[in-house]
Specification:
Rossmann fold, six-stranded parallel sheet, 17 strands
């Protein structure tokens, strides 16, 4: 299938148009016309090879909403004309212990990511959602609840899921005290999801400039982390803190905010952190944890939860040819709270 997308052609280059072929359908494949694709901070990191391992040309995009245009002969879960959703993973071995328990992202035999990852059959590098069409193994295509606005739903596939996983993993529910560090793409979804789970939610930020935004999103209050008195007063007051900060930062002040057996769950920074002092962990039986996105069953659960509670990210719609400006703005945190590309702006 001939298609077109936008790709990084080199480490420091702007994204530019790329024509390429999508594979022919296998028996267990679904073909989709992509309608909307979210812009994730990891797209920027991968395109610029910040983490290493980028293979060019690299077509980013792993927050995908599309319409199914064809299905393989063995596919029964989807039909032509349905909306479909694709997140960060498009294939796995489906045989190891992790795949068997619905945690395909931890596949023992290397998960195939939506882009910049070798196809299990051909070894060709995968290309993501900044494109007009995509072909994905049926198991990794999710159903989109009818109640969700498809124009806004794409960021749920990464930002939404990344925030949902720790909330479920640490059993957040009525009465849970949840802190959210950072109010960006991940943080604003964590606030919305935690409130829907009936938790008490506090946004933790260096200044009070985002207080009204936090309250509008549903948070109960905002804690200023640079205010030593306020931080001291908040000691031992959280069951779970979700840390969405995407750069190296000191987590020690946040450990003191955890109650006994509380958890600081990191979902933002991929890389080094400063030295961690252990007395607060040991004396309070506190935990530092991390989590990525979830498996397919949990992803569908998250979409259904958002459909039930009408939870959607706050988005700014852009054209495909505005992606380089969007990347620059994202580096400056100049977006509330997620860019979504309208793929109607991309023509073959």
């Amino acid at each position: 299938m001939q298609t077109i997308g936008y790709a990084a052609h080199a480490e420091k280059a702007d994204l530019a148009p790329l024509s390429f072929e999508r594979r022919e359908l296998r028996a267990n494949d679904v073909a989709m016309e992509i309608l909307f694709c979210g812009v994730c901070h990891s797209d920027l990191h991968q395109a610029r090879n910040d983490w290493g391992g980028a293979v060019y040309p690299l077509v980013p995009g792993h927050e995908i909403i599309g319409r199914i245009t064809a299905i393989g002969s063995d596919v029964t879960r989807h039909k032509v004309g349905d909306y479909g959703a694709v997140g960060c993973v498009v294939d796995s071995c489906m045989e190891c212990d992790q795949c068997a328990r619905g945690e395909e992202i931890f596949c023992r035999h290397d998960v195939t990511q939506t882009y910049n990852s070798p196809d299990r059959v051909t070894q060709e590098n995968s290309k993501g959602g900044y494109s007009k069409h995509i072909v994905v193994r049926d198991h990794f295509v999710l159903h989109v609840p009818e109640t969700l606005d498809v124009a806004k739903a794409a960021p749920l596939l990464c930002a939404g899921l990344t925030s949902y996983v720790p909330l479920r993993m640490w059993q957040v529910g009525p009465g849970s005290r949840v802190g959210v560090i950072g109010l960006g793409g991940l943080g604003h979804m964590a606030v919305k999801l935690a409130k829907a789970m009936k938790a008490e939610v506090t946004v933790i930020s260096r200044t009070d400039s985002k207080k009204q935004d936090a309250l509008t999103l549903g948070a109960d209050t905002l804690l200023v982390s640079s205010d030593e008195a306020a931080m001291a007063s908040a000691a031992s007051s959280f069951d779970l803190i979700i840390d969405t900060v995407p750069v190296k930062h000191d987590i020690n002040p946040y450990i003191a905010l955890l109650d006994v057996e509380g958890v600081l769950n990191i979902v933002g920074q991929i890389g080094p952190l400063p030295e961690v002092m252990t007395p607060g962990l040991i004396m309070g039986r506190r935990k530092i944890a991390g989590s990525p996105v979830g498996g397919m069953a949990e992803t569908q659960e998250m979409l259904d939860f958002c459909g039930k509670h009408n939870i959607l990210p706050d988005v700014e719609m852009i054209r495909m040819d505005e992606i380089n400006t969007a990347f620059d703005r994202m580096e400056q945190a100049d977006v509330r709270y997620r860019f979504v590309i309208d793929m109607a702006s991309l023509s073959i």
